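Bug #77: duplicate submission created two jobs. Keeping one. Sequence:
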Amino acid sequence: MNKVFDTLWKSIFVGAGYTVTLAFTNFFLSSGVDIQSLLWSFVGGTVIGLTLGLLASLMPATRMRHMLVWGTIIFLNIASVTIEGRFFAPNLVQGSMAALILQQLIVAFAATWLIIMLFAPIAETEPLAPIRRTWLSWLWRFVFSVFSYIVFYYFFGAINYLLVTGPYYETHAGGLVVPAQGIILKAELIRAPMIVLSIIPFLLTFKGSKKHKTILTGIILFAVGGVAPLFMQINALPIVLVSASAVEIFFQNFLTGIVSTRLMGIEATT
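Kept job's structure:
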């Protein structure tokens, strides 16, 4: 029980650090401070802290390796959501995109630093399993993983649109818009590589079987790339839309994690 409370307070601390950094950077971006939005950002940041903190506690590595693994996951997933949000909810994602991406980089650094300080066991060295793949082998595996996300995105997105979310987009609930198909494809061609890139350092560092990595990677992409951003928007979007989107994103991101791990994961050697 003590371990549970210890993990929870550390995760809450990460969430608080995430939110404070977000509020601080919002001040410089002159975008104002919405208390309700910050409260939901705190919940999202806590989800990130809990998910990645637990995994970090199981992965002895150097500080730089921890920073690379967890920072890449946080930054690329949240930044990809920010970019996608500019296409689908321009009223919610305003301002210079370069400034918004820089903001996400700063927030990701702060959250990652807290995760390392609170959770991560530090190793002096980090012997890694040899990787015997050519650049061409890496390339087709990466491209196929990216393509799998786009397939999952359209398939589950179409089902969700027909069953639940269509009326919300058609009435522009919460400032949502439906871009042209070419714009949607452009957005996902940007987001998909960012999502797959975000987990490569984890796949190359975390020691474990492909079976375990497959599940963990799916959880990472769903929690950090799905649940946390949805919590951060819960104050602006209808709860039905948020709930339906959570189910959609679970299948999109979790399945992408499975495909990426099977293709690019390195199984631990004994």
